[in-house]
Write a structure and sequence with these properties.
The chain is α+β, with helices and mostly antiparallel strands and 480 residues long. It contains 16 helices and 13 strands. It is globular, with a radius of gyration of 20 Å.
Length: 480
């Protein structure tokens, strides 16, 4: 199958071709591998091409995505006998002996895992530029970042290597790369997707899912992998109908709040504000009630809680990997910001971590009250268009944990709130900057109500189609 044809299909479309015997899974896999060979030397998005050595992970032939090429991020989720280096020299060679529950479900869905994607070290960065792998590049402009921490996944999907890829989100790591790469990035409700064999990821602020190019792919994959696994610590209430049904249902009239200013008060690029205003106007044209409003929280306490939870979990992950590989964490095998976060996390006391969870609970209840009046909260996904590579420097001389955390959430000040509350939020590719870079719009919904987000996303996808927008890395590929 020619890449020019393959890259125009979403995952649902490719699966239909397989079911109709118009193409074979092997042909799709071979096209994906050829695309990696052609595009990855420029993008640096795929770090391990399993299919090149015949080690691809075959999915069920009965699944809804049977035969569709897929990539997994090498952080948190893991697959049996597949290296998961976490973007770190300390973790080099880390291999798990089994699949996570979500990996098992990806296989049951029929997806064929052809490789793994890059991540910043310990997935704690809003760009993807680890020392271990080097910078991953944005296919819309190779001098710019694809976002993070699922930057490899975002760049690979945007470039057409695969139509959909695994990603996860503990502060925006699905939505930020979706915004930077012109993709759809849904952060599901806390507990919607399984976390086994782990407990609640990042004390409940982390969640696993994917980035994609179509709303129907997002909905169908969520149908395929959602629901609790055996012994789940907690899980989201099930929907009344399939998420895929929400794609085609008649749209409801929604009460949408929008906010231009982040709760933290950091500055927002004017192009992002203009895109927000245009999106708010579009929602109004589509019949929704749109007003400017935002929830109120104690920002300083929320920032403190975020710092404590993230650094405590960085320390926990570092210690676990170091023990498994019989290594000693140091400045020689950890990046500057990671080592600072590790040290900070090591020093946090149990009462301080429990205080952080109490702060998160107070924020969640305050935001929950806001959502008794509004169905949706609209904002830019990030405060700036995709940054030039090197601006979020994880190895800046002397950077400490507080400065690093502030730097990440100055660039992405809108996403973290929904990690705290556990509510679903989706980034949609509704705008492009004056120099041709994607600008995502974030829509946050009520707890366990992905269906409303998917229904609205489908309406916006029809009103402002994005499927024919293609980055230069794809348009100019010699594969065509």
């Amino acid at each position: 199958m020619r890449f020019s044809e393959y890259s125009r299909y979403d995952a649902t479309g490719l699966a239909e071709l397989v079911r109709n015997n118009e193409v074979t899974p092997k042909e799709l896999k071979d096209t994906a591998v050829e695309a990696i060979r052609e595009l990855n030397p420029k993008l640096n998005a795929v770090n391990n091409v399993l299919a090149e050595s015949g080690q691809e992970i075959e999915g069920s032939q009965e699944g809804p995505f049977a035969g569709v090429p897929f990539l997994i991020k090498e952080a948190l989720l893991h697959a049996e006998n597949v290296p998961s280096n976490l973007g770190s020299r300390l973790a080099e060679g880390l291999v798990y002996s089994d699949d996570t529950e979500l990996m098992t479900r990806f296989k049951k869905a029929g997806l064929v895992t052809v490789g793994t994607t890059t991540t910043p070290e310990w997935a704690y960065n809003a760009t993807t530029e680890s020392i271990f792998y080097g910078p991953t590049r944005n296919p819309w402009n190779m001098d710019h970042s694809p976002g993070g921490s699922s930057g490899g996944a975002g760049a690979a999907v945007a470039a057409g290597i695969v139509p959909i890829a695994h990603a996860n989100d503990g502060g925006g790591s699905i939505r930020i790369p979706a915004s930077c790469n012109g993709l759809i990035g849904l952060k599901p409700t806390r507990g919607r997707t399984p976390t086994g064999p782990f407990g609640e990821l990042l004390s409940g602020i982390g969640v696993e899912f994917a980035v994609s190019r179509s709303v129907r792919d997002t909905a169908a994959l969520l149908d395929a992998v959602s629901g609790p696994d055996i012994g789940a610590y907690s899980f989201a209430p099930p929907p009344n109908r399939s998420f895929l049904e929400a794609v085609t249902e008649p749209p409801k009239r929604l009460r949408i709040a929008f906010m231009e200013k982040p709760l933290t008060g950091v500055p927002v690029n004017q192009e992002c504000i203009n895109a927000l205003r245009e999106t708010a106007a579009l929602c109004q044209e589509l019949g929704h009630e749109v007003v400017e409003a935002s929830p109120q929280i104690d920002v300083e306490l929320h920032n403190l809680a975020t710092l404590r939870i993230w650094t405590a979990h960085v320390a926990h992950m570092v210690n676990g990997v170091a023990k498994a590989l019989n290594r000693v964490p140091s400045e020689e095998n950890l990046e500057t910001a990671s080592f600072a976060c590790y040290q900070y996390g090591q020093a946090i006391t149990a009462p301080q971590l429990l205080e952080a969870t109490d702060i998160m609970a107070a924020v969640t209840r305050s935001v929950g009250r806001f959502f008794t009046e509004y169905d949706i909260l609209l904002s830019p996904t990030t405060a700036q268009p995709p940054l030039p590579l090197g601006e979020l420097n994880q190895n800046a001389l002397g950077i400490n944990a507080e400065q690093w955390t502030e730097q990440i959430f100055t660039y992405a000040p809108f996403t973290n709130l929904f990690n705290t509350t556990g509510q679903p939020a989706i980034s949609l590719p509704l705008a492009w900057s004056s120099n041709g870079l994607p600008i995502g719009m974030q829509f946050g919904g009520r707890f366990a109500d992905e269906s409303t987000l998917i229904n609205l996303a489908s309406q916006l996808e029809q009103a402002r189609p994005w499927k024919d927008k293609r980055p230069p890395a794809l348009v100019n590929a010699s594969l065509n």
